[in-house]
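Practice problem: Putative signal peptide peptidase SppA
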Amino acid sequence: MSEATPATPPAPQLILQPRESLFGRFGKVLLVLLGICVISMIGMASQVQQYFGDGEGPREKYHSLSKEAGNKIAVVHVSGAIMEGDTFVEDQLEAIEKDPTVKAVVLRIDSPGGTVTYSDRLYHKVKELREERDLPMVVSMGSLCASGGYYLAMAVGDQENAIYAEPTTWTGSIGVVIPSYNFSRTMNITGMQDLSVVSGDLKLMGSPTKPRTEKEAEVLQELVDISFEGFKEIVRAGRPALAADEETMTKVTTGQIFTAKQAVELGLVDTLGFLEAAIDRAMQLANLSPSTVRCVEYEQRQTPIQQFLNATSHQPPAASGVDLRALIELSTPRAYYLSTMAPVLLRSN
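Answer key — structure tokens:
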């Protein structure tokens, strides 16, 4: 039997890769360095803008009425929780203060309220602008104008027919809340302990890691009562009819939310109407006509880094989650003029 002839091995294959030129390697390095420089310049520009400001404030844009008129009615938007760290409302007020062509203001409020301190700060800012410039002001309530939002609405003063609510608006919730939670039983189950070292018995007042003592409850209630009295004084100043009717005043300051129709009947709101009706009323108070005034509103300017990120990303901004700062704020006793059925997990930014 003859032996099989061995198969001829395949010829070796040579793969030749083109040698990268010196210019190609240099070009890649140059592109990387250029990218680093661009990002660094954007970051520095953003820091400079944040420190010195851009000198222009929010961007003004046309809303309605005459496009050629020089006189303006400014719509100031107050949206979302009224919290420290969000300066957009103050930026709008500052833009109006610097603009002598603004002859009237409409406060467009769609807010559940916010912290006692910042609600009061914005109230005084608006009131100061109204008095210094002698500007007619009208409130237009959005879907919700409650608690600190209503507190801010009182800044328009006791002008006649100056507070408008849409037919589906909810308003009221006049009151104060200091959110407080007790997680001590959960901690006992998990074996966690609070080993904080404190300087006094009340230093951990409001901490969620332990049950509240009777003394702590008394102190917190006193803080709420003081802030509540301040809220009621603001309402009395803005709604003289309520100040003269103590029975109704008591009824509207229980923390209850009211429909727009109920709010009109109780004297919290002057009339039902949409934003356009409030603009017409502001125009009337300023003795202007549709052909002689332009209605404007404002939008926030973005920092260079925000513009860069928005231009390079197609993803929508992530929803604000509960971060370390939010958890710290949660464990810190703080008073709110706020209408909510959820735990206070609001971030300041």
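Discussion: The radius of gyration is 30 Å. Students who identified this feature from the tokens alone can consider the problem solved.
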